Amino acid sequence: MTQSIKIDPLGFREYDARWIYEKDINAQGITELGKGLGTQIKKHTKKENPNVIVGHDYRSYSEEIKTALKKGLKSTGCFIEDIGLSLSPMVYFAQFNLKADAIAMITASHNENGWTGVKMGIKKGLTHAPEEMKELKEITLRKNFSTGEGKEKQTKDFSKIYKEDLINNNKINKKIKAVVACGNGTAGIFAPDILRGIGCEVIELDCNLDWNFPKYNPNPEDLKMLHEISKSVKENNADIGFGFDGDGDRVGVIDNNGNEIFSDKIGLLIARNLSNSHKNSKFIIDVKSTGLFINDKILKKNNCETIYWKTGHSHIKRKVNIEKALAGFEKSGHFFFNQPIGYGYDDGVNSAIQVCHLLCNQNKKLSELIKELPKTYQSPTMAPYCKDEEKYKVVDDLIGTIKKLKEENIKIDNQEIKEILTVNGIRFSFEDGSWGLIRASSNKPSLVIVTESPVSDERKLKIFKFIDDLLQKTKKIGEYDQKIQ
């Protein structure tokens, strides 16, 4: 008896597709997704047999899902080039290197076990944005599938080409001792080799592949992971600690004293370093990022422009591409380097390499470089549960509430709201430079909350309490994943 197709429409998210495997989607549903994607690729490339790079991460069920997806892709006429166990950036790189028409990477990134997903792209260096996801969803659910005769080939050892490309272009002339933590995710067989290859002394932490993620999820925003890296940096007297997420497109950074440095501050240090040799550049940053970029003296001196944009790797990637920006930075640890530094996509290992270049060029410890930045008090990214079908409405209502407070000059902790940015949820700023952000998560049933103050920890906390109070009044909010007190 053939199993019926299961595919929850809510799995089609803003810029990738994610489901809990077998609960929200089954193998037949994945094959349908492959048919939808193949049809979409043919439509946009206008080719009868487009070449599609396919890779997968190290989860117990990822190969099974890849097989089901390839079946769907081939049924539309796609020619598959399967590069095997991969990082997402390795698949993106393969599209350039192998001159392919599109990519599909089987990964749930840092999501807990049970989740699966696909990151997809057609134009080189870019991944699906909301318009493409909407189109893919319609093709798949309406079954408007193209048909054709597809085929596939396995490309073995492509990982060597990817590793060598990063190593050969990035040798460093100073010994850097780096703790490299991978949370037992796929980056474990890539990041240590590449960083060793450029000249780092590498101390491996949880780099053996284990799809059960026995210690913590490979997520550089996870405090548990960051604390383990910090401990190892101090024990080994290391110069830096790097933490990579499950599919290797993000990095978290711990300084030589064992302190977590939020990725937006790392982004600012990298932007400063790059701006000295790339004057008049543009940098794109997401709405969760520090307010320090706008008035940074070094970026101003080098005549560089900063643009705040929507959170999400696809959004920032596209904005970097459209604006011909030199780089883009997300607080979550996605960094995007355009030519001549990269191909425009996010690669956690290349991001770590750029931090190594920063340390070499400035010839200072990371803790010293951070001290040179104006001090701000930042919250981690906090995610209270909110149903997928309710989260956008909740945010829209809160935008209305906060706009009204601004119009009526209502003070929050004795400060009026000075500016509101609504490119992605709402980011509201105060006269003293403090700000808060409320937006809907793009890949989980939750909201995203961030606050920052250049004044004090207490001020940061008061803005969070104000946001939390608004959220609790909606009666649509569940538990937070983590919370400042």
Outline the structure in words.
By secondary structure, this protein is of the alpha/beta class. It has four domains: 9-156, Alpha-D-Glucose-1,6-Bisphosphate, subunit A, domain 3 (Alpha-D-Glucose-1,6-Bisphosphate, Chain A, domain 3); 160-260, Alpha-D-Glucose-1,6-Bisphosphate, Chain A, domain 3 (3-Layer(aba) Sandwich), CATH 3.40.120.10; 274-350 and 362-371, 3-Layer(aba) Sandwich (Alpha-D-Glucose-1,6-Bisphosphate, Chain A, domain 3); 377-474, TATA-Binding Protein, CATH 3.30.310. The protein has helices spanning 27-45, 62-75, 88-97, 130-142, 158-168, 191-198, 223-236, 263-277, 297-301, 313-323, 348-362, 366-371, 388-407, 457-474; strands at 17-20, 51-56, 79-85, 102-106, 115-121, 151-154, 177-181, 201-205, 240-244, 251-254, 260-261, 282-286, 305-309, 327-329, 335-337, 377-378, 411-412, 415-421, 426-430, 435-440, 447-453. It has a six-stranded mixed sheet with strand order 1-5-4-2-3-6, with helices on both faces. It has a six-stranded antiparallel sheet with strand order 16-21-20-19-18-17, with helices on one face. The radius of gyration is 22 Å and the shape is globular. The mean pLDDT is 95.
